[in-house]
Amino acid sequence: AAIVEHTFNVEDVIVNRLCRDRTITTVNGSLPGPTLLVQEGDTVIIHVINNSPYNMTIHWHGITQMMSAWADGPEYVTQCPVVPGNRYTYKFNVTEQEGTLWWHAHISFLRETVHGAIVIRPRAGRTYPFPKPYKEYPLIFGEWWNTNIVDASNEAQAIGVAPVDSDAYTINGQPGDLYNCSSDHTTRFRVIRGKTYLFRIVNAALNSQLFFKIADHKFTVVAVDAAYVNPYVTDVVVIAPGQTADVLLKADQKPGLYYMAARPYLSGPVVPNNSTTTAILAYKGADESSTPKMPVLPVNDTTIAFKFYSELTRLVTSRFWAGVPSKVDEDYFVTIGVGLIACENPGTCQGPFGQRLGASMNNVSLELPSKISLLEAFVQNVDGVFTTDFPKQPPVIFDYTNPNISFDPATMFTSKSTNIIKVKYNSTVQMVLQNQVTLAQESHPMHLHGVNFLVLAQGFGNYNASEDSKKFNLVNPQERNTIAVPTAGWAVIRFRAINPGVWFMHCHLEPHVPWGLATAIIVENGPTPDTSLPPPPSDFPKC
Ligand code: C2O
């Protein structure tokens, strides 16, 4: 195993997109930022130097951070921000994971432009559980604003409303030629007929799940969230913010140009940016000036999204499959949704009914501390920062998916607190995630730091324990770090708490985090030194 060491210089640069110049925050001046290329078993050392005008933290999305919670990155969960002019070195091992993950800023809306891929290949002497591709390409979906969305979202948050919609989606930082002034801002992926390519797809968009297709081509999905799946052939990939998908593509068509296109799967009532981003699959020998063939993308089709999301299964003959823990120690039923928070100074809030938008898990809208991280407060036994009696059931039981009861004040209001979950080392946690209708229904991509979970079942309507537990896949459930809980539906996840620390769990739709659609799970130390979290590194940022 090697040591992979990089310097991430966080700096502002000016780029031109959609007919205008804009200042954006980047790592090393590029959008997307550098790809981190490692082999399983490597140690990663990243020196983050913050030369931007913003507070910064970097999160290594999907890396389990076994025994290295201090390097996880979410602001005020595991660390205080790296202030402008300061630096922090993230150090962690990449173990028992292969595939594609990604890194991103985990503070305000900065991940719009501060993100990049993490490519984890098998260690020396090991191979992929599929034929070696001719070439590999990272393919990162992003979302672009003409305005400075970091400032705009802070202003929206102050008055309790949703931030403005984005202006484009992007592929590797480029919107593609269906947008104005973008014919030179279109990514071309070059292929040779007869060869097979591995596309390492990341959805770094802030607001939207995406449908992705390539005209006349099919994909074979071989991994999601850096866990191998049974090869799954499909002509459409559905990917939620936070998720990754490794897909093989055989260049088996007539040499030519083919559009690779993505547009949102809008599962809810809000119609944000509904535009289409494109790249071009360009065969060797094609007429480079011909018009590429366009695929037909689904339009808000929940059936297609659910089919893709629910048919994937874990490849259990591959490395790192640990089986399904059978005995559940901690059982949670958690409602998730967007509602309202009462305005603290009536007249100053501009959300629905003059209140502010809020979101919650079991009606707890998570409020993060601002002077210390949860992890430091836990390790140093600082009182008064958080409580650990997060409810195991929602406080109000109702028909969660009945659209006729949205806007009912009895279910719509939540309140802020720092009430989180605490579990013992090595306990098995099961969580039913139930979308609730409150303001409206949509699919929330729920992400858990610090461990992968198994998705035992998912479905529509209200979860019914006696019926739906019969549908659990206890043989080869997909393993993920981010689950798009079906709109007007539910998903059941299970994991073993074997990594001491404080682990953020949140919706990966960016506005929902400051609204409170989040919690944190404290995993206590185990009985031995090697199952206990070591102390923080000496350069750990102070508040
Ligand atoms: Cu990709 Cu907590 O995030």
TrEMBL record:
Sorted alphabetically, the Gene Ontology cellular component annotations on this record are: apoplast
- Which note does the record give on the cofactor? Binds 4 Cu cations per monomer.
Q: Where in the cell is it found?
A: Secreted, Extracellular space, Apoplast
Q: What class of enzyme is it?
A: oxidoreductase
Q: Which PROSITE patterns match?
A: MULTICOPPER_OXIDASE1 (PS00079), MULTICOPPER_OXIDASE2 (PS00080)
Q: Tell me where it mainly resides.
A: secreted
Tell me, what's a Pfam family for it?
Answer: Cu-oxidase_3
The source's domain of life comes to Eukaryota
Keyword Metal-binding on entry: yes
Q: Where is the Plastocyanin-like domain?
A: 10-124, 136-286, 389-525
Task: Give the UniProt record's GO annotations in the biological process aspect.
Answer: lignin catabolic process
* Reactions catalysed, as given in the entry: 4 hydroquinone + O2 = 4 benzosemiquinone + 2 H2O
What does the record give as EC number? 1.10.3.2
Name the needed cofactors: Cu cation
Q: What function does this protein fulfil?
A: Lignin degradation and detoxification of lignin-derived products.
Q: Which family does it belong to?
A: Belongs to the multicopper oxidase family.
Annotated PANTHER family: LACCASE-7, MULTI-COPPER OXIDASE
Q: What name does UniProt use for this protein?
A: Laccase
Q: Which organism is it from?
A: Oldenlandia corymbosa var. corymbosa
Classification from the root reads: Eukaryota, Viridiplantae, Streptophyta, Embryophyta, Tracheophyta
